[in-house]
Protein 1
Amino acid sequence: MLLAMNNFAYTQAASTKEATAAKQADKQAAFIGGGTTLLDIMKANIEQHTLLIDINRLSLLGIENGASGLRIGALERMSDVGEHPQVVQNYPVISQSLLASASPQLRNMASMGGNLLQKTRCGYYRDVAFPCNKRVPGSGCPAQTGDNRNLAIFGTSPSCIATHASDLAVALVALEAKLTLENPKGATRTVPLADFYKLPGSTPHIETHLQPGELITAITVPAAAHARKSHYLKVRDRASYAYALVSAAVGLDVQGGTIRSARVALGGVGTVPWRVPAVEKALVGKAPTEDNFRAAAALAVRDASPREHNKFKVELAQRTLVRALLEVVA
Amino acid sequence: MHSDDQTPDAANAASQGPSRRSFLKQTGGLLGVALAPPIASQAEALADKLAPASPILSGQINVSLNINGQAKNLRLEPRTTLLDTLREHLDLTGTKKGCDHGQCGACTVHIDGKRVNSCLTLAVMAQGKQITTIEGLAKGEELHPMQEAFLKHDGFQCGYCTPGQIMSGVACVKEGHATTDDQAREWMSGNICRCGAYPNILAAVREVANKG
């Protein structure tokens, strides 16, 4: 089909205030940055928007690394952040999560803010012929008993088991990143990324705590020893250019043969990026050995609730986690 | 052809009305005034002084693109992708439509020197940038080294993915991401070849990188 998208109006916002006000004024409007998720789902008729607000002229750029941490403008592209020397050196898990995402073409296009708001790859969400509570609230969730091999084992509900698709978000949640959000009044607030995402519960169509018109303007990541010694391991059906079956974002601060601090989050397994504080707690004070990593990894899956076809993720998550931890101390 | 010589300003002027109204709607609360008609006109003048609202464009709009060094003035809807613009409005059919969802890479072009999927790029958002398509690689009869290498190594069977592979390959080498076979495989993974000509595609990309 030549033009699969419904028609829409377009405006290029000159300021953040103009963009957020336009979005608040029109419930059917959407921001467009790179467009890699938005145009895809509009072509698939998953979302329809009457107005696209182009935010690319807004000054939401910059990758700045200082003593207190890293600040990334929301409009920075995935490719630029992934290969930025300061990010590669001081926050390897962020760089690796970005470069393991999507394709080089998509990484050149997609913005950091948009990446965090990308939609799930659940096949029922993406196929409008099926019911889906995330797409049409109250219509049902065929994934519960259907083709759920790729779907979540953590944070699920009877309404939704869709996996959060972002690799970047897993790395950022592990490193306790925060988002800066700006509202139509020009006021900003800062929200930990872990609190930004909502578990599906009975309202899986509400995915974040974004308020009407609010825009992600920046991402900040605190500096830490465990950030410098960090790693992202992504396990997928193909060697490249595929979504995670399971991924692990880990960071360790090891001094004198003892783990001083640990950060661990899992991807491909949760309805939101899935940090596992029990594993972090178990690692602190221990020696960085494979046995200790195995014992800690077992704690990660205590609360798993797999469905028929994704039971393999319970074992795979532990193995992925152990390998990522071994990699970071290698 | 749907091209014409209208300036972008003409389309902007046509949509000044609605955008000004929506700007006032937004600023009403901020200014703390009820927009009764006499005040509204004053407020409108004030609003225009404070910050001219960006126009909201809809229907057929003027879009000016720079493609392979040539300026193209078109009338397009905002929803028209760069891919459809190239193929359906400019007869530049070298760029291919495979999946139309950013999954296959057949539509790869360069925007300001960076490889992107033209199927997920709106033409209206590509204005003011340098767009290069497969048709823009050769210098007259002289093929680009990547095109020569694809011929030499037989880097295709059906040929449908080839323009995208070549555009991606050119960028991949320029980025410095084709220094080893493994690296080139990883950084060419956004281009799918249904025929499975990957070994030959890899050989072509690596040869150009080595000649660098």
Protein 2
Amino acid sequence: MSGAPLSSLSRSALHDRLVSPDGLRLHIGRFVTSIRSRHAQVAEGLATLYADYRLADDDRFCDYAVEVGRGDGLRKFVRPQSLFRFEGMQPFKPLPGDQAFAMLEWGLNWVFTNHAQHYLIIHAAVLERDGQGLILAAPPGSGKSTLCAGLALRGWRLLSDELAMVGLEDGLLLPLPRPVSLKNRSIDIVRALPGDPVIGPMAHDTAKGTVAHLKPPRTSVEEALTRVQPRWVVLPKFEAGSECAVQPMGRARMFMSLVSNAFNYPRLGVTGFQAMGRLVEACDGYTARYGSLDQIVPALESICSRPA
Amino acid sequence: MNRRTDRHLANTLAQPGITADFNARDWEALIGQARTSDLLGQLAEVLRDAGDAVSVPEPVRFHLDAALRIAALHRQSLQLELAVIASALAVLGEPVVLLKGGAYAVAGLRAGRSRLFGDIDLMVAKASLDPAEGALFRRGWRPTHLNAYDQRYYRQWMHELPPIEHFTRGTVIDLHHTIVPPTSGHIPDPARLIADARPVQVAHCPDIFRVLSPVDMVMHSACHLFYGELQKGLRDLYDLHCLIGEFSVEEGFWAHLLPQARAHQLEYPVLLALRFARRVFGTAVPEAIAEECDRRLGRRWTGALTDHLIDASMYALHPSSDSTWRRARRHILYARSHWLRMPLHLLIPHLAYKAFIHDEARVG
């Protein structure tokens, strides 16, 4: 992964690339993605949150080309929209113009989830410490991203806040570090954490409420090609006012919980079943109910420091 | 659109050797076009067959490999579905003809290698439609179009029943009784199609499946493409290129193709198929047949216009090969497909219903 980081581009050079036919070409994990957009918010979000990502060399094949457009015809000028395109296709309905950066993030999630079929893909945050991987698997609303942000700001290496990508052959976790998506109150909670959090553009009144993203730590971005052995699976559940309760979880329950959070499990057939089996064999599972980050972070760090 | 890259997909499928001169941008156009045309698996097969003759850059290989993996999984699930379907339909005591993608796959044809498809298309004699549908209902398939208008549209006018979907696995089956809508005015003879069909062995299935004879298979593929909406024009034409290439060595294929299509009143789409397969993929067609093709198509007064319109659907819907004018021509083709499917006295009320009433009806 050669090439200068995006932060080496001036704002006008960044803009020029974003509107050029080839787009802004960045290494995101193992993929090169071309991004095109005339939305100022997309440029701002990229400059803030993707500053450490490397620019791809000109002769490198681009894996995925995406665009956040402003709409067709008059829409380009009157109340522009955010229109996500992938290879000319439009997988989603347009959003309001001021949600352009969030649209880019959601669109990229969709692209990676639907096209990288070498992996069992689970909806989960993934972090690494001492060479061992922690998978936080849970449905939306369980505080997974906030917890993930909290751990990343304490020095855990962020692999992803959305997608656990488990290699079908080697069983290792493929990093795909991207900005951590935060919603509503968790934006202020994360902003107040130590570790100098950098937060990108805010999108208000989205389907998920107010959304903003936390910049991934630089070391996470730079080590994005180093795969990780999975070691712990935790199902977090935030409940306001709750005491902290971390309980071991049996392998059968761990298996079924991961299946219910997996995107492509049915599609992978026997291969998916085997990969999931290997993952569950390699990991200790826990459920974790908690009422604040102050409780859960030390509890998780104590579990994850026990010798294997 | 880019004139230099806009034919990369068709040209590479026909002659993978041209990729020797490709730079990163060429490969991007090729993969993007294949992805948007549902031809990534087929492209991966062609490049794999070319072996050492073609050197594919490592990052490109990743996407081809992904397509081959998906296709292999797709094939496994097809086998499982066919086993269930066979055990459901064995009671009919009649042959069940597999059509299109499913047929290409089980018959081991080149057209079926790593080709993805959504629905499983089956054909039975018209008298067996109801018992066949009932037998599939008992195995968990459910109607998808519950509204009375849609049910009548399919059952009264179309060549197939409304699609049925499995309530847990989501597999969709289209049950046909013939190969073109009877309202199109072309009346092929389904009894003869079924009688001419050839047995095909499917693992773990009782011996009920058939596939159309080579000539009928080409004819059906051509009807599907040129009487349809041409939304997947390049993919469907590539099917024809593969089928024709593979069948052309069969005894009597060329001698029977046009006469048999004429007997089924389906010569026109076959003529178009031969013309466009030659033009886009360089499919080998005997000189005499090619000449006959041009002569007969040249007699039609709409020939040049139709030709120009269809040409637009033979490019991928990808930024590297798409243009406003090509999109406009595709819209006209979409309208044309409805015109070909039904006479005006049925089509106008049908379109009016779809435009003004249908959404409301769906709520209830």
